[in-house]
From TrEMBL:
Belongs to the FAH family. It comes from Caulobacter segnis (strain ATCC 21756 / DSM 7131 / JCM 7823 / NBRC 15250 / LMG 17158 / TK0059). Its EC number is 5.3.3.10. This is 5-carboxymethyl-2-hydroxymuconate Delta-isomerase. Keywords: Isomerase, Metal-binding. Pfam families: FAA_hydrolase. GO terms for biological process: carboxylic acid metabolic process. One of its GO terms (molecular function) is metal ion binding. Coiled coil: none annotated.
Length: 282
């Protein structure tokens, strides 16, 4: 199922996407589950499904989508997780995933603008498959990892490259406000027959810049979940951005930076099409 977070008539809600409509289950269950994070934490998807019949249907065009989860406790980013990206960056091969963190206030929604900060013009796209944790846990095994996934979503883990390269620590270049798009919705894993065959494609103003199947990840999703949950407890609503394919703007000749007025799309068939404009921070 596709589950979206949104604002309808000025109120925050959530519900199931059905074609060009959204079933506003939050209008029925909002007191018990005020947002999608609360529903995920309670493992109450079946309760939400049972409420579909009494929930209002609203045109998608009449709601404002918000990030699928707006207050994740932790956002983990996996660096250089495709061989094509590792090679273009000149990074050495490693035995463990490269992990860094984002803050929740860096998130923005489908249809909203990615913000280029005043301090830089080096805003780069990074199309990625996002994993949203459902059941939390510590020391999750690879065999059990996918049972802990609530949903999958497209993401644009955009980077402020010069700030990312100030030192060997990526944190500054990954945490400017509204530089990480997440949406338009999350898809429950049962919707994807063969996750490895799913392709992550980035288009900038209609031109394909990145395209690679999930099967090319150096560290597959179950291994990432097992690794992260070894050093910290994963909680419902946490987000893992699983890495970007080769073709980033920084490694092109000349470099290609996103600029105000651009349209960037992250297209993951079966999961969703995430579309954002680019604007200068004011």
């Amino acid at each position: 199922m596709k589950i979206a977070s949104f604002r309808a008539a000025g109120a925050a809600s959530w519900g199931f996407v059905d074609g060009d409509h959204v079933i506003d289950v939050g209008a029925v269950l909002g007191e018990q589950y005020p947002d999608l994070e609360a529903l995920i934490a309670a493992e109450a998807l079946d309760v939400a499904k049972a409420a579909i019949a009494e929930a209002p249907r609203v045109l998608l065009a009449e709601v404002v989508l918000t990030p699928v989860v707006s207050r994740p406790g932790k956002i983990f980013c996996i660096g250089h997780n495709y061989e094509s990206h590792r090679q273009e960056t000149g990074r050495a091969k490693v035995s463990y995933p490269s992990v860094f963190l984002r803050f929740a206030d860096t998130l923005t929604a489908h249809g909203a603008a990615l913000l280029r900060p005043r301090e830089s013009t080096s805003l780069d796209y990074e199309g990625e498959l996002a994993v949203i944790i459902g059941r939390g846990g510590r020391r999750i095994s690879e065999d059990e990892a996918m049972a802990h996934v609530a949903g999958l979503a497209p993401s644009n883990d955009a980077s402020i490259r010069d700030w990312q390269w100030h030192t060997q620590q990526f944190t500054p270049g990954k945490n400017f406000p509204q530089t990480c798009a997440l949406g338009p919705w999350m898809v429950t894993p049962d919707e994807i027959e063969d996750l490895g065959a799913v392709t992550v494609t980035t288009r900038l103003n209609g031109q394909v810049m990145q395209s690679q199947p999930v099967s090319d990840m150096l560290f597959p999703i179950p291994r990432i979940i097992a690794y992260i949950s070894t050093f910290t407890t994963l909680s419902p609503g946490d987000v893992i951005l699983t890495g970007t394919p080769g073709g980033v703007g920084a490694k092109r000749e000349p470099p290609v930076w996103m600029k105000p007025g651009d349209i960037v799309e992250i297209d993951i068939p079966g999961v969703g099409l995430l579309v954002n404009t680019v604007a200068d921070e004011t």
